[in-house]
Structures are given as C-alpha cells and as structure tokens.
Automatic annotation (TrEMBL):
It comes from Candidatus Kinetoplastidibacterium kentomonadis. The gene is cydC. One of its GO terms (molecular function) is ATP hydrolysis activity. The keyword Methyltransferase does not apply. Coiled coil: none annotated. It is found in: Cell membrane. PANTHER family: ATP-BINDING CASSETTE SUB-FAMILY B (PTHR24221), TRANSPORT ATP-BINDING PROTEIN CYDC (PTHR24221:SF653). This is Thiol reductant ABC exporter subunit CydC.
Length: 562
C-alpha cells in the first residue's frame, strides 16, 4: 500500500489543478443526478396531490428538472474529458519513466527480468493504475462529500436521517474497501504475476517454436500455458463472485436503511415533512447508494493495484541505476594523456542472488591502451572477455581496482560524456527497425551519403546495397530480418567505425563472416587505427596480424603473448 500511495503521489503531484477540476466536475454531476431524482419525486407526488391543493408552482420545479438534467450531462462530460486527459498523460509519463529506468539497467540487472514480465509491467501493470484514480480515489471522495452535503440538507427535515447517512457512507467508503482488501489478501491473488508468466510462456513459445516441434514437447508447452491460464481464470472467477456478493450486501442494506428512513419519516409525516418531501428524501437516499457501487468495483482491484505498484517500483525506485550520481560534469578532457584506457588490479565476480554465491571472473587485471593502438584479447568462451568490455563501459562495477579514461577515473565521468568518447560493438547484431541509412546514422548523425557509401565499401557491403531498389533508403525490417547474418554483422560494424568516438570496443567483429570478407574488413580496421584506438575481443586468429599487442584471458588472468 505504501508503494501505491508513493507512486500515485509522485505521478499526480504536478497535476493538482486538473485533478481538482475533475473532482469538482464529478461532484457536481453526482449532486445534479441526485437532486434531479429528488425534485422529480417531489414534483410527481405534488402533481398527484394537486387535486387537494389550491395552488401548485409548476415553473420552479420544471425549471430545476431541466437545469439539473443539463448540469448532470455537462459536468459528466467535462469530468470524462479532464479525468481521462490526466489519466492518459499520467500513464504516458509512467511508461516513459519505466523505459528510462530500464535503459539505465546494466545487462546483468536486466537479465533478471524476462521479456514477458517486462511487457506486463509496461502494459497491464501501468494500465491497472488508471483504475486507482477513476474507480477508487475519485468515487470515494465524491461519495463522502455528497454524503456530508446531503446529510446537512436532510438534517433540516429530520436529524436522524443525516446521522444514518453519515454512518452508511463511512461503512461503504472506508470499511468496505478495507474489508475487501484484507479478504483478498488471505487468498494470495497473484493475477499480475500469473499474467507475466503467461506472456513469458507465449513469447518463449513463439521464439522457440522450431525447437518445440523438433523436440516434440508441444504438449508440455500447452500444459504450462493452460496452467497459467486456469490460474488467471480462477482468480477472475473468484473476484466476480466477490463483487456479486458485496453488491448483494449493498442492495440488502440499502433496503434496510431505506425501510428505516421511511419508518422514521412516516412518523414525522405532516409534522416535519409532507408527503412530497417524504418521496423526495426516499428517492435521494436511493440514488445515493448507487454512488457506492463504483467504490466496490474499484476495491476488488485494489489487491492487483498494489501488486502492480510494487512491480513497477522495483524498477523505477532502483536508485543505483536510475540516476548518474556523478556530480562532476567533464565534457572536455583538458589533461590529454596518451593512455586512453588504464585498468589497474581489476577483480570482478558474478553474484548469484538466489544461492548467494560469488563466482570470480577476473583477477588482478592490468591493461594499458595507448592512443592509436590496436589491442586484441583472445581466450576461451566464458573467460570474461565481454565482461572486461562491460567494465570499461560502466555496465558493470569492479569489485576491486580502478579504470581510468584519459587519466580520469571513469566513475567521475558522466555516462553521457563517456559514451560520446567510446563506441561499442556487442556480440549481438543490434539492427533497429528502419532503413540502412537510419541505422548507420545512429553511429554518426552528421555523416553524409558519401560517408555512408565509403564505410559500406570498406565493409564490402556497397555492391549489395547498390542492387537494392531504394539503396540506402531500403527498409531492412526489425532485427535486420531482410539481411543475412554476415551482412547484419558488417552493417553493425560499419555503424561503429563511422562514429566520431576515439575508442572502439569490438566484441567478435568478424563473427559470421566468411574468411575472404574477414580479411578485407580486417585490412580496413587496421587503417582506422591511425585515427582511433581499438580494443578487440575475438576468437579469430586473423586479427592477430594487425594487433599491436595480443593478450590471452584465461582463468581470470590476462597474459601478454605478443
């Protein structure tokens, strides 16, 4: 509950005025509806009794009926406009905040979340929060304010009725939501978690459908999918039954309270009130109970709301990755040092949070890279080569030792500044939805078409691009679906090489490329060393030929071979 209140407060604190307007519109619309029914009841009864009356003012009640009808429609319309405006803006802000938070996560932290779980947090969990305002906060405040005002008005006629309304509003606005929440807590309703698991299972099945068919485990996958689906249906069925039960209680108690009010009012008939006023009071109380129904509907979802807020807060409240805590903004490196990167006594271990075990990966790593050098690091898979690059990029933090860039500790350099100086080619082919040109311009937004053709030629991609109908503007699809593995790899490498960064970190740059093309690319990488410093981690023996120094990383130790 604390996370939900904290999250809602931070989301709505800058939207106080529009929220206040929404409350006022909703309050006026509700009162208009209540008074419309009340005056209509009085008017109908008074018209029925007109035969025994000498005079009946038709103008005032008929005018009030029209006024309240128009007021109800107008302010309900305004409530929908302002209410949904603030909700949609808030949900948009929340999605942006979640996405910004996820961007700041390092790869290891991000790996704790599965794709389906993240999708659920950004869609269903976020969408759930709109019901907090529309179906819980707003109805409760409107119901309490309406009950207080009506109690004050009815106190003019019969004081006991106002007391009954106050007690009733407290029961249905405060006690009932708390009861529903506590009751649902006993049954451990994990709908959002089950929904995340369901989406994980679906996405995994889509990604690995070939393996599922080849391994003949279709039935196992379907059983797992059916299990989570039944869990969701069971929770939904339970909530529907609970809603029906609570509404039945509401109707039952409304009948008792109406009977009680009628009994009290009849005893006061022709003393404090007349017959028309009695009917009007009865209608007003009856309509007031309808305001409590949205509160019950919203209270049923309160458990899911709290789960959603907890799941979202796990991402956006992670201060370690949300903000760059560096106070020093270093945009210009005045102390220019030939040593581009220096690693001193670096130790690093991966920690298993479940087993609470640390696995040492790097031990006492010392490495100095001078300007214009090509440094290559080889070694068996899993030895920590990619981890070393992650440490330089501040995607991971070393257990011991320090890393300096241009003789400045990288912890004192904001990531935004650091990433302008360093370009990174990961093992994955990160092709974005768009054209060949748009993907290349990610590396250097100021590159001309001539620059793009030049880098494509060096990557032996120019002839292929020339054959395409739209050439540089050819749509290559998401993840480079229209490219071969080798072509996608060369396009990613071209994007890194065309950048203005002075340090290039290349992780398996020639993976998936045939030998002849690899030799051609290595030749051009060597030429780039005149203007850039390059650190390569690879299994390829051909890259040794262009390296100034070649290291082997094995058993956590870095050994110089040439």
């Amino acid at each position: 509950m604390k996370n939900l209140i904290f999250l809602l407060f931070n989301l709505y604190k800058n939207k106080f005025l529009i929220i206040l307007i929404t409350f006022l519109c909703s309050f006026i619309a509700s009162l208009s509806g209540i008074f419309l029914i009340g005056i209509s009841g009085w008017f109908i009864t008074e018209s029925f009794l007109v035969g025994s009356l000498i005079y009946l003012n038709l103008f005032v009640p008929s005018s009030l009926v029209r006024a309240f009808s128009f007021s109800k429609v107008l302010f309900r319309y305004l409530e929908r406009i302002y209410g949904h405006s603030v909700i949609l803006k808030t949900l948009s802000d929340l999605r942006v905040l979640i996405f910004k938070s996820l961007i700041e996560f390092n790869p290891r932290e991000l790996s704790y979340y599965r794709n389906g779980d993240l999708i659920t947090r950004m869609t269903n969990d976020v969408d759930n929060l709109d019901s907090a305002f529309l179906f819980i906060v707003n109805p409760i405040i409107v119901a309490i304010c309406s009950s207080i005002l009506l109690s004050y008005v009815l106190n003019i006629f019969i004081s006991k009725i106002s007391f009954i309304l106050i007690i009733t509003s407290l029961v249905f606005c405060i006690i009932t939501p708390i009861f529903i929440f506590k009751y649902l807590s006993l049954f451990n309703d994990n709908s959002q978690e089950h929904l995340g698991n369901l989406k994980n299972n679906l996405l995994d099945s889509i990604d690995g459908y070939k393996d599922i068919i080849l391994m003949n485990i279709t039935n196992n996958v379907l059983e797992k999918f059916d299990f989570y689906n039944k869990k969701l249906e069971s929770n939904k069925f339970f909530r529907l039954h609970l809603i029906t039960f609570i509404k039945s209680i509401l109707i039952f108690f409304s009948g008792i309270i109406l009977s009680l009010i009628l009994w009290i009012s009849i005893n006061k008939l022709n003393i404090s009130i007349n017959a028309s006023e009695l009917v009007s009071i009865t209608f007003i109380v009856f309509v007031l109970f309808e305001i409590f129904i949205p509160i019950i509907n919203g209270s049923i979802n309160l458990q899911s709301l709290i789960q959603s807020s907890n799941r979202i807060n796990n991402i956006i409240k992670n201060d370690k990755y949300l903000y760059d805590k560096n106070n020093k903004i270093i945009n210009n490196f005045i102390n220019i040092d030939d040593k581009i990167i220096k690693l001193s006594n670096i130790d690093f271990s991966y920690k298993d949070n479940l087993l609470n075990i640390k696995t040492p990966i790097l031990k006492k790593i010392n490495l100095t890279i001078n300007s214009g050098e090509i440094i290559t690091i080889g070694g068996p898979s899993g030895s920590g080569k990619s981890t070393l690059l992650n440490l330089i990029l501040q995607l991971e933090n070393p257990d011991n030792g320090y890393i300096k860039y241009r003789n400045i500790d990288i912890n004192n350099i904001p990531k935004e500044t650091l990433y302008k100086k360093i370009s990174y080619l990961s093992q994955d082919n990160s092709i974005f939805l768009g054209t060949i040109k748009s993907n290349l311009l990610i590396g250097n937004n100021y590159a001309t078409d001539d620059d793009l053709w030049s880098i494509l030629k060096k990557m032996d991609l120019d002839n292929f691009v020339y054959t395409l109908p739209n050439k540089l503007n050819t749509w290559i699809g998401e993840s480079g679906i229209n490219l071969s593995i080798g072509q996608a790899r060369r396009l990613c490498l071209a994007r890194v090489l065309i950048s203005n960064s002075e340090l290039l970190l290349l992780d398996e740059p020639t993976y998936g490329i045939d030998t002849e093309t690899e030799k051609h690319i290595i030749y051009h990488i060597n030429n780039f060393s005149k203007e850039k410093t390059i650190l390569i981690v690879t299994h390829s023996d051909l890259i040794k030929n262009i390296s100034d120094k070649f290291y082997i990383l094995k058993d956590g130790r870095l050994q110089l071979t040439i």
